[in-house]
Amino acid sequence: MAGHGLLLVAGLVLLAAAAPACAVDYTVGDSSGWTGGVDYSTWASDKTFNVGDTLVFQYGASHNVAEVGSADYSACSATNSIQSYSDQNSKIKLTKPGTRYFICAAAGHCAGGMKLAVTVAPAAATTPTAPAATPSTPSETSPETPSTSTTPAATTTTPSSGKTADSVGGASGVEARSVMGTLVGAAGLVGLALMG
Q1: How confident is the model at residue 193 (pLDDT cuts 50, 70, 90)?
Q2: Residue 172 CB neighbour total at 10 angstroms
Q3: Chain CA centroid to CA 177, Å
Q4: What is the DSSP annotation of 73-135?
Q5: C-alpha to C-alpha distance for 147 and 26, rounded to whole angstroms
Q6: Closest CA to 43 of 122, 97, 118, 120
């Protein structure tokens, strides 16, 4: 009985640890925030932005965020901005694939480097793919020794370097599939615990 309780606890811990695997909050510029002197092209270069992720712009009162089109981004012009923000903590959800452009509309700031272009990929698939079916009966020409091990293989995940400490949680496509595998394994453990 105690073994079943331990399985149940282990399954619930795995479920709780793997649950926040949907989207990522990216703090633009990491700890520097949205300010002068940061190379935002370099900041974005090692990140994969997906539909559902959020850009968090944190900045002082002398700055703002203007979402603009490609031509206005190149010209550092906010006269035709799509949306403007000045609340010093702007959270912008990435809702569709494509490239999005952001600049600081304060005089000279965009020309000084306060501009960011991000390419948004479609939402990462989170449905695990099933492995191809293999025959479970031994071949007549090559006898096999049955395995007596009942210990499931351990699943390990490596954190992505593209996420910041401010991430709500999130995963790339590979990480999401790994997390889904962990969730399926945890659900199996919980099922075994409940059956016993």
Answers
A1: low
A2: 17
A3: 12
A4: HHHT--TT-SEEE-SSEEEEE--SSEEEEEE--STTTTTTT-EEEEEEEPPPP-SPPPPPP--
A5: 46
A6: 118
Structure tokens at 34: 């949205």
The token pair that represents 43 in the structure block: 């900041």
Task: Provide mean pLDDT across the span 122-128.
Answer: 62
User: Is residue 80 a contact partner of residue 52, using CB atoms and an 8 Å limit?
Assistant: no
pLDDT of 77 strictly over 50: yes
**Residue 50 β-bridge partners:** 121
8 A C-beta contact, residue 17 and residue 159 = no
> Helix axis angle, 2-18 relative to 173-195, nearest 10°?
160
Contact assessment for residue 68 and residue 77, using Cβ atoms and an 8 Å cutoff: yes
